[in-house]
Design a protein that fits this description.
Elements (H helix, E strand, L loop, with lengths): L30 H4 L15 H7 L23 H20 L2 H7 L3 H33 L1
């Protein structure tokens, strides 16, 4: 393969700097040049693409992003409560399925629902231990400084 086939497209120098309201768009960016031909190969002057482009061609402004910092303090969330609630919900769901719907689950072949609850509790307990460990390490680092 030749390197000529894998060249990167050149950057369009016309848009290299931010535009302002006083700048005029380049002549090749008219609405006519941006319309796509229809199924017959003829450019449709009333296409849905042409109307917004024609309205925008008078002023092409590159808006500058404004970043404002929040004055609110971040929440001190360690995830322990969230994971604990999840474990509790999996436990309750598993117990309800086991005590109330066990026969129905066996009859329908849906015993895997109980295993899903057990897996949810097990993974939740691992997550709870991880969150506690992370919280303890964060506190230890914070207390040292």
């Amino acid at each position: 393969m030749s390197s000529a086939n894998h060249r990167r497209p050149k950057r369009d120098a016309r848009w290299a700097r931010p535009r302002t309201a006083t700048d005029t768009p380049p002549a090749t960016d008219s609405a006519d040049s941006l319309r796509s031909p229809g199924p017959s190969g003829i450019t449709d002057s009333t296409s849905a693409v042409a109307a917004p482009i024609a309205a925008q061609r008078e002023v092409l402004v590159a808006e500058e992003a404004v970043h404002r910092l929040s004055t609110a303090e971040p929440l001190d969330v360690d995830g322990i409560r969230t994971v604990g609630i999840g474990v509790a919900l999996w436990t309750v769901t598993g117990l309800v399925l086991l005590l109330v719907y066990r026969d129905d689950l066996e009859a329908d072949g849906n015993q895997w629902w109980l295993w899903t609850c057990l897996a949810g509790v097990g993974i939740g307990l691992l997550g709870w231990a991880y969150c506690r460990r992370r919280r303890d390490r964060t506190r230890a680092v914070r207390d040292r400084h």
